[in-house]
Sequence to fold (845 residues):
Amino acid sequence: MKDTTRSAGAPQATPAVGSASAPPPSAEPAPRAWYRRPLVVRVVAGLLILAIWQIVVELWAQDYVARPTGVIRVIPSVLTEKLFLSDIVTTLTAVVEGLAIAVVIGTAIGLVVGRLPDAQRVLGMYVNGVYALPIIAVVPLLTVWFGYTPKARLAVIVLEATLPVVYNVAEGARAVPRTYLDVTRIHRAPWWRVWFGVALPASTPYVLAGIDLAIGRALIGAVVAEFIAALDGLGYYILFNVNSFHEDRAIVALVVLALSAIVLRALVNVVVRRGFSWYWLA
Amino acid sequence: MTASRTPKIRVDHLGKTYGDKEAFTDLSFDVAEGEIVSIVGPSGCGKTTLLRCVVGLTTPTQGSVSINGQRVLEPIEGVAMVFQHFGLFPWKTVAANVAYGLTVQGVSRRESASKVAELIGLVGLQGFEKAYPHQLSGGMQQRAGLARALAIEPTVLAMDEPFASLDAQTRDVLQLEVLRIWEARPTAMMFVTHSIDEAVLMGDRVVILTGHPSRIFDIVDVDLPRPRNRATVNTDRFRMVRDYVWNAIMKEGHRVVGDPETAARPAPSSH
Amino acid sequence: MPETHAVDSPGPGRAAAVPGTRQTEPLGSPSPRSARFRRLLAWHRARVVSGYGLGIALGIVAWQLVGKHSVQQIFAPLTETLQRLQELIEDGELASAAANSFATYAVGLSMALILGAGGGLLLARSELVRTALEPYIMGLYAAPMVALIPFLLAFLGFGFWAKSIVVALFAVFPVLLNTQRGAQSIASELIDVARLYRSGEKDLWVHVIAPYTLPFFMTGVRQALARGLVGMIAADIFLSATGLGGMLITAAQIFDTSAMLATVLVITVCGVALMAIGNAIERHFARWKVGQ
Fold:
């Protein structure tokens, strides 16, 4: 334990008195040991994890349980499978569509709730309620209303994604710096100029934070909807393949799913940096 | 002298209380047309609140403010303000910010273009029309803020510690810049600051706020010739006024009889 | 509104902040003894109360109206829902389902708290482990947990322990990440002070690291309470159709909308209660949170 404390992160322990500290000035700095290089450590750890996974599954689990060798073997066939590719498109299109709707609705509600304390008192309890409720509990109901159709999935996505947008936009609308509001009041700007010309642009960082969170939740919503309603898509691909003892294929789909979240978030970031350069430096 | 003309701004027994805390009370003074009145006092004396009451951003709890004889209860036409933290919208270019007042009034971009260009030139920001505030230094942002204020051709200018967020050298430069620009078209101005030197340098008269709750200790005639420059701060008259104000604030308005440090009230000079 | 919007991630600093109604401009008011002040205050209070009241009233009216005007299979009015709820309580179905669900919740959450705290502390104290595992943990965190459920079902079956593990999986990450963040952010000065007094490793942990990390851990607990609930319902629905989630599924299959709505109502109440508990816990321990 003593050893690890010396190499601990933020709490940099001061070396004990008397121990050798800095090397003599004339000597060359020692080459960094392999366990100090982050990349090496990570790769080694990753390989270790894969090895453990492989061994555990080989020894104790059924044939169909996923294992690294199996996954690698099926990657080419999965990535070229037409059904898989169309499933990716289906799910991601639904996610993007749902996100767009969620951003619009969420921003509108967020602005209203953020700028009008009265609206916040009336609507706040419902927003909080929906936030506290696992959306997954509403999905059966939504399938009753929309049937086992893509509309149900869209509804779930919109529901999941709107919430973080509402919260963040409301926060932003409430937190408009007073000086900006003073400027609008001195110039006697009408309410719509204040909301759309000032409160909304000032909340842009918050909107973007909300979108970032909404992306993750939208993907979750899509998967949940596909599970319950058996809709074609990336989530259902996973379910189907697990149930038909093709877990290796399902893992590939899972990885693609996780990557989609990262890619979508990165895309949003890029767009933000281009279109809203002032946001990063304001 | 100025008493015979209708004051541009009349502050009448103004008081402001928050809950059970009284910020200031019984403030009365006038600002004449073409006059700069500095308001100075220790931190927390409510001078910014006073300014906000004058421009209508805050409602006083006692007394009243009138501009051009019209009672001020909320912002009215012809009143412009320059803010301590500049208040430029980061998502708008400098030109768009300067034009904001005109945009709100419904003036089209084409019509306001020439005026905006003129003002940007006046404050020395040529070439930065398309820049964004984050690309500008503090001093430049405040110049833009000033241009925005002047764009609506105000009859009253309110300055809320406009240079407090700037470094000392920029402050010195901008003080004289503002005076130079003001000279071209003298507008009634209320200048709030916590810097005594600045108050005396900028103003025709200095309103001294002291005490808890704040009251007007005195209103001093600065009586220094215009246009003012860096040499003005070395004149005897400047030092006399400044010392008086300094003592007033430091001793919180308690004039101690026989105390040689307490400066005598400077009489209006022969200028 | 709760302080953080993200159950999932702390997010950028700006996204987690101040809640509630905040006056943008203080009420202009004369001395408190005056009638005007009291009148203004009373009027403001009335406005607040009527705001909340209107919200509740609107909800009740809307529910009732929509229910009355739709087919039984689509929506049920509030009165019917409450009736059905009473039935479910009386015949014990609700109680047994809730007990079933929350048993897995409790077990799963406990596992998550222990694993999360332990893991977080380990990651904070050992730079080697942290560097090695960080990308994989973040990758796992980024993956939608729900998508892992089919694998878990295939691997663990659908018994009590399988469900508890699902709950634990949903709940562990906020605990882990928050604990790690807390333990890592201990200013080195505090550690140095402890060392100056010749504290042994154990003392260091007990007197410095644990108390300092505790408020962060509690933030993780708050988030874990909510995520654990999601895991609980997900486990109910996907693993063995028992418990509260199971009630939802069975009701959906026979189009018993009033039962479905009643269950959703119960789950919402649970969710709100857990959120309140979580907030209270976090706030209590945030009293001695250093810095931030």
Notes: The two ends of chain B are 13 Å apart (CA to CA). Chain B is about 30% helix and 25% strand. The beta strands of chain B are 9-18, 21-31, 36-40, 62-67, 70-71, 79-82, 156-160, 188-193, 205-210, 215-221.
